[in-house]
Specification:
two-stranded antiparallel ribbon, mainly alpha
Length: about 120
């Protein structure tokens, strides 16, 4: 039986990859905390409704400069918080039910496709 040691450079790459993932996860959750401290539930709901109304009506050019700036700030905040939501979804992917068996949450649309649709800009 031959035994080959795990190459040192492979170990270092694996270690760096793990550290990189942890730092990305930490940054994503910090962005989520920032979003939650910037927008309360009512304000976030109002901004989301306003954003959808403006997108559906196509009336962005009719908005005041103040409204445009608020919408742009909100979209930028959403763009920063989406990776955190994806990280949370990955952590909650497997849910323990009362019988002790694991259920997998699956939907018709993949999570990555859903988040990508949020980031698309209307033309």
């Amino acid at each position: 039986m031959y035994y080959t040691a795990f190459p040192q450079d492979s170990y270092e790459k694996l270690h760096m990859s793990t550290q990189n993932h942890q730092s990305k996860q930490k940054a994503a959750f910090q962005n989520l905390r920032n979003f939650c401290s910037s927008y309360n539930l009512m304000e976030a709901d109002e901004m989301l409704c306003r954003a959808f109304t403006v997108m559906l009506s196509g009336g962005y050019s009719e908005q005041s400069m103040h409204s445009k700036k608020r919408l742009l700030d909100y979209f930028e905040a959403l763009e920063e918080v989406l990776p955190a939501l994806y990280e949370l979804q990955e952590k909650l992917k497997y849910v323990q039910n009362q019988g002790g068996m694991e259920d997998t949450y699956q939907d018709q649309v993949s999570t990555k496709d859903l988040f990508a649709s949020f980031k698309r800009h209307p033309e």
